[in-house]
Amino acid sequence: MYGSIFALHTEERDLFSMNYMHEGSPKFWYIVPPSHADQLGRCLRDVDILDTSHCQASLRHKTLFPNPFELAQLHNIPVYRIEQCPNEIIIIFPRAYNWGFDGGFNVTESINFALPSWIPFGRSARSCLCQRVGNPVELNMDPFTEENVLIYTQTHLNSQLLELKHILIASDKQPILDL
């Protein structure tokens, strides 16, 4: 929708996010890289924008829309501006704070996902427990041990490689139908 905004946030449990635009007007993103997430949190607390007296994870409330130019110029926090157009994908990495707005009507979709490299981020992510956020997403991190991830990755990769081998063998043969 024209002029709609999405407030400063990271994804639930600091998951990855993939955002695809099907059609319409551009979406404008502001992104602070994960390497500066702590600096951003300190800055927002220092300038008294972020109230942490009632919640340890108040940035998860999605209530702030900071001035990206002020963050960059006055507080030396790198902020990247990205214009997303139709048929483009934006990947948000764990702990990358992002916010932005739509430049008009558009159709987009997004999904959160995890890779093995995400597990340390998921383990250290703080959850909002103050009930200001409707139903906070909780993810039990107990099954994500190194051993379980290694077993899953090896099993999954082996089956994927086997499937890929069959595809490559099949691709050497003549096509069934010539279109």
Q: Can you walk me through this structure?
A:
The protein is of the alpha+beta class and 179 residues long. It folds into 2 domains: 137 residues, Jelly Rolls (Sandwich), CATH 2.60.120.650; 28 residues. The chain is built from 4 helices and 7 strands. The strands form 2 sheets. The chain has a 4-stranded antiparallel beta sheet, with no helix packed on it. It has a 3-stranded antiparallel beta sheet with strand order 5-2-7, with no helix packed on it. The C terminus is likely disordered.
Summarize the structure.
The chain is an alpha+beta fold and 179 residues long. It is 28% helix and 24% strand.
Q: End-to-end distance, in Å?
A: 41 Å
Structural class: alpha+beta
Largest sheet: 4 strands, antiparallel
CATH fold name of the largest domain, please? Jelly Rolls
Within CATH, the superfamily of the largest domain carries the name Cupin
User: What's the helix-strand series?
Assistant: EEEHHEEEEHH
The helix content is: 25-40%
**Strand element count:** 7
Highest CATH level, the class of the largest domain: Mainly Beta
> What would the average pLDDT be, to the nearest integer?
81
Give the C-alpha Rg: 20 Å
Key features?
179 residues; alpha+beta; Jelly Rolls; globular; histone H3K9 demethylase activity
Topology diagram in text:
Layout: E1 5-9, E2 16-24, E3 27-32, H1 37-46, H2 68-75, E4 80-84, E5 89-92, E6 97-102, E7 106-113, H3 119-124, H4 146-171
Antiparallel strand pairs: 1-6, 2-5, 2-7, 3-4, 3-6
